[in-house]
Amino acid sequence: VQLQASGGGLVQLGGSLRLSCAASGNIFSINVMGWYRQAPGKQRELVVIISDGGITNYAESVKGRFIISRDNPKNTVYLQMNSLKPEDTAVYYCNADIRSRDGRDFVRTVYWGQGTQVTVSS
Length: 122
Hints:
Blueprint: E1 2-6, E2 9-12, E3 17-24, E4 29-38, E5 45-50, E6 56-58, E7 66-71, E8 76-81, E9 90-102, E10 105-112, E11 116-121
Parallel strand pairs: 2-11
Antiparallel strand pairs: 1-3, 3-8, 4-5, 4-9, 5-6, 7-8, 9-10, 9-11
């Protein structure tokens, strides 16, 4: 299983970016998908997660500015980031809780994407 993230870049204060993350490989089902970020010198933190049923949980710092969505048939999660601030600058990682077939059984594993840099200039 692989998670391929894309869409990062450099944007000015108040601008917008859209991140995408597509999962591929031995996928039977995906439960929770989400986005985390890590700024220089800081720990990785939750940005937002979304269940397969569409239930979301946003960090307070991004509520009202970021929107997560997912396309279940495409195993893809998106993050629309609006009104970006310099403090949003970080490497953004996608994350997915995936069930895969293993013979007659199923294996549940949490996967991480490779990270995509988001830089907001003031």
